[in-house]
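Hi V.,

You were right to ask for the full record rather than a summary. Here it is.
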Amino acid sequence: MAVNLNALIEEIKRIERATGRDDVLSSFVHKLESSLADFGAAFSDCVTRGDATGAVRAAHTLKGTCHQLGAQALGNLFADIERSAKAGDYADAKRKFDGAASLIAQSLEALKQA
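Predicted structure:
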């Protein structure tokens, strides 16, 4: 994760310098943190309403966001959750998410420290 994370973070910081803004990365990380906090309830709501497409989309969106920020392990988690949701195994998807609290916290901390 470190090499990819560093390259992507450096690109975001280059954009910050070029635009004179110092909040681009922190804004992305804050948005990711908010999305992660909302994911469990949003995913469960989709499942409860029978919205399989919405459940898959929720996982897919987080997968992409994590990969774009260089948080590969976290992106891979959401790729696994997306696969479970596509297969209709929502209980497995929820177990994967619920069991990843440590990975989520570590990934967010790494992004905040970058």
